[in-house]
Amino acid sequence: MTEAYIYDAVRTPRGKGKSDGALHEITPVQLATQVLEAVRDRSGIDAGYIEDVAFGCVAPVGEQGAVVTRTAVLNAGYPETTAGIQVNRFCASGLEAVNIAAAKVMAGETDLAIGGGVESMSRVPMGSDGGAWPTDPETAFKTYFVPQGVSADLIATKYGFSRDDVDAYAVESQKRAARSWAEKRFERSIVPVHDVIGDTVLDHDETIRENADMQSLGGLNPSFVMLGEQFGFDAVALQKYGEFESINHVHHAGNSSGIVDGAAAVLVGNDDIGKKLGLKPRARIRAMASIGSEPTIMLTGPEFAAQKALKRAGMDKKDIDIWELNEAFASVVLRFMQALEIDHGDINVNGGAIAMGHPLGATGAMILGTMVDELERSGKETALITLCIGAGMGTATIIERV
Amino acid sequence: MSYETITVDIDADGIALVTIDLPGKSMNVWNAELMREFKAFVDEFCTNDAIKGAVITSGKKSGFLAGADLNMLGDGDPAVSGGASATKKQQFDSAFALNAMMRKLETSGHPAKALIKGEVSAKPVAAAVNGLALGGGLELVLASHYRIVADNPKLQLGVPEVQVGLLPGAGGTQRLPRLAGLQNAAMLATQGRPIDPQTAKSQGIIQEVAPVGELVAKAKEWVKANPKVTQPWDKQGFKFPGGGGAMNPKAMQFFMAANAMAQRETNHNYPAVRYILSCLYEGSIVPFDTAIRIESKYFLKLLSSDQTRNMIRTLFINKQAAEKGEARPEGVEKQQIKTVGVLGAGLMGSGITHVTVKGGMDVVVLDRDMEAAEKAVAYSKKILDKRVLRGKLTKEAAEEFLAKIKPTADYNDLKDVDLIIEAVFEDPDIKADVIKKTEAVIRPDIIFASNTSTLPITGLARHSERPDQFIGMHFFSPVDKMPLLEIIPGEKTGDRALATALDYNAKIRKTPIVVKDVRGFYTNRVVPPYINEALLLVKEGVQPALIENAAKSLGMPLGPLALSDETKLDLGLMLVRSTKKELGDAYKPTGVEDLLEKMVEGLGRSGRVSGGGFYEYPEGGKKHLWPGLAEHFPVADEQPTMDEVKDRLLYAQLVPAAQCFAEGIIDDPQSADLGAIFGWGFAPWTGGPMSHIDTIGAESFVRTAESLAQRYGERFHPPAKFREMASAGEKLYGKAA
């Protein structure tokens, strides 16, 4: 089978996903356009060689609707021959989009493609796309639907993580993110976002709180008590997890991923096209996997996705040098570390979404890019990138520095 | 045209006054005859140009229309379900008949498209609602263009179908949300509780409230003034009040929360609730004509289910029959009970006093001194004060109520009572003394009822001079809340005693069952094994939360550990010891004796009233499982699945209930089902343990029970009678029941 190589990875900085966020005035199509322009312009290649572009987007309605990828491809001035597809695998959409691009290369469908994602959560709020799953009584009942926050709290309850555990994790995430910026670890991949007059509106991740500590986080009220207790979602969760009397609500705005705007793009191609265009491969994709898991606890999928990817790669968890798991909620990462016996020093080494935010459709591609940069910086060989996903899924990708 | 069930009077203005009045029935209901004739009227209404509009009312003082005849639905009447051999299409057409007729009534038979475009309009129909309108009755009101209801705050408007496992199948799930919004509609339809006319008006369900005598005139006036009408949902640009439709953010939020709350309340045991929400959800996305077809499909799905049949049978048909005194011996004339003598003003005596006065009787309540006797007055006062405070009762009415209770310490005050109910301490010697002293003063023909939960009646009757007039009545605590009454004739109890007990019961409006005079009667032969099973699970190291959640998942109102906290562990221990003493070598250990001893005597945890048992009861906080339990009964590493725990808790009730039936302690499956649901809250969705065994099949019941017996012990052994039923393929309930 053809090998798929990562030739480049870029991302926008992440802007606070509210109306006072720095990227709120930028349309999602512009965010996507600017990363597509960057991939093309940094490599200096003729975009005509890029045959297909897959972008994740989780609320693909309104101005993110109508295949936002194809719209951005045309807007970025790519030739009309470059196709576009919009991908939705909830929170792993960005990684899945890269995997699709890689799969197209491996399958021999394309020589060069882009995977990535975009989400302007300040302009197209989470949930804008509706959906039957939580609202249609048939599916809500059958799946024992609960909101993700309740699932995250259920993970903490089931696997024994206290409020202090999750807060301590969050404090460390902020510290690592701040250190990474101070040490310019993201420099290679960041593409500052500019406005219509060409001025830069954001060149750094906007939501990092370097000074967060246990005391400041301790003052925050848990976010999902009302949903759980008043609206009945705790009861629904306990109908499946009957060994618990109640759910321990430990998550709040400070130890959950932030709502942000952003976009990312990863250039993937085979060996020949790289040689032909004079591109230097930065990493090789060793394996990819997506799985389904129990939908009520919902966010434990990364463990199984990682194991599947390892198995398909013929690797053992010891063969992974560094791990990157999207920090949707602190308990998700703590459970993953517990399940796979991963040292905190080897995972999310540069901080994550708790500090920098989680632009749903783009995050997977962003953290994959972070790992490409980190492998090069640290001289390590292998990284496994994974995300937990709504409705109980997991997607993982293993990359290897070349 | 002439009809039997309705009269149609067309006045000079061409307005047809349709009066529904089923001959020979105390209440109007949708039965096959009314459906046929009303349909004929609707057809005539649409085609006869001389009729300009219609006013629908009822000829019954008892109400407007009380919904569908559940006897007809329970029978699977072909008129409704189309019969078992019918094709899906035929079954649907039958289920859709009422919907189709009401749709025709509100559209005058015009297609929706023509109405929406304004090309045509419908003839006006007004409902003049003189009394309660429930289920299909309210649905007929909703299909009328103008809805005017009598200004009686006690008048009930509602769609209670969910209570017997059905849904409002004549447009109720579609017209209610279109008039009152999704949330109001969901509350009404998923809970089934009726509302009063003013509330209905404020929700937009009806337009006017007026004195009952003016209803028809006002309705006619409206019809005359509005010759051309269209329902709001047949107009261009119609929107749900408060938002509706799949993409409306408010509707989405509503459904997310409603789905969760419904799961919390039903534990996935009541498909009717889910289907009602589905009717609201799916129906709010599509046009009205599609919406009512969806509703009828879900209705049919429920109507043809075992669960609905079981629920209608037990919770409606058999409950009513029992309350009407089905078990009453023939040939005994109705007993006049004006004053009841209650012996003992403890918790039970006070409760019995309260329900007796509530049932319209006077009470003389006796205890050893006035101070003790007056506790019964205080007990009622506490309940009444709360109602006064909430504005549900006037001060005067409360005082009148309390004046009917005469506390006394003097046996002579009992000389004129019409019935004695004894509720003194559960001690044979004390009871014997009280029986003697009472019989010395009461009239010789008076029936003596003894309230006991454990002592055999035949034994107590030996202390009576008149054992044929002696009977047992097992009330449940708290008496004013618990709906069941176990009536226990002893060996020598005569017909008049049984008749009196049932006549008294009819006044206090409990659900009675008649059971054989054996230790524990019926309910107390089943509940202890059920609680014991939970205690055994605790001893085995099963997570207490899993035990409690499994019971809730079964549909029990309370976990068995919470229940044993309520019924008091020290009482359980006392019962174990007295049974042991009485039976001697014949005593069969339950395996939880040591746990009870440890909890009660070792740890001082006897239950809620004594400060805590399996649960902690923090002041002002929510009760929670006692974390200290694990120190004494360590949690095992390996936990069973929820389904395994559920099976054990379910069969710990099914098997003893089946034994009671097999041994003739309870005569008929109807009473066994009623006693279980109303006595200890056995999962109502099943229709009762006997209905449940029928539904899963005796063969499956026997197989599971045997497998449990193999794994956990003899106590799960199914009775021989049920093995025989299994091999003969028989059912407990005959075809009709």
Computed over alpha carbons, the radius of gyration of chain B is 29 Å
| Mean of residue pLDDT values of chain B | 95
> N-to-C SSE series of chain A?
EEHEHEHEHHHHEEHHHEHEHEHHHEE
Distance between the termini of chain A: 18 Å
The fourth-level CATH homologous superfamily of the largest domain in chain B is 2-enoyl-CoA Hydratase, Chain A, domain 1
Give the assembly state of these chains: heterodimer
The name CATH uses for the topology of the largest domain in chain B is 2-enoyl-CoA Hydratase, Chain A, domain 1
**Which spans of chain A of ≥5 residues are poorly predicted at pLDDT below 50?**
none
N- and C-termini, Cα separation of chain B: 38 Å
Number of helices of chain B: 31
How many H/I helical runs of chain A?
A: 15
Please tell me what the overall shape of chain A is.
globular
Strand order of the largest sheet of chain B: 11-10-9-12-13-14-15-16
- Give the low-pLDDT segments of chain B: none
Strand content of chain B: 5-15%
Strand content of chain A: 15-25%
Q: What composes the largest sheet of chain B? A: 8 strands, mixed
Structure, explained:
The complex is a heterodimer of chains A (about 400) and B (about 725). By secondary structure, chain A is of the alpha+beta class. Helix content of chain A is about 40%, strand content about 20%. Chain A has helices at about 30-45, 70-75, 95-105, 130-135, 135-145, 150-160, 165-180, 215-220, 225-230, 235-240, 270-275, 300-315, 330-340, 355, 365-380; strands spanning about 5-10, 15, 50-55, 85, 110-120, 195, 200, 260-270, 285-290, 320-325, 380-390, 395-400. In chain A, strands 1, 2, 3, 4, 5, 8, 9, 10, 11 and 12 form a ten-stranded mixed β-sheet that branches. Chain A has a two-stranded antiparallel ribbon with strand order 6-7. In chain A, strand 3 (about 50-55), helix 2 and strand 4 form a beta-alpha-beta unit. The model of chain A has no long low-confidence stretch (mean pLDDT about 100). Chain B has about 725 residues and is of the alpha/beta class. Chain B is about 50% helix and about 10% strand. Chain B has 31 helices and 18 strands. In chain B, helix 20 links the parallel strand 15 (about 485-490) and strand 16 (about 510-515). The two termini of chain B are about 40 Å apart. The model of chain B has no long low-confidence stretch (mean pLDDT about 95). Classes of the chains: A alpha+beta (about 400), B alpha/beta (about 725).
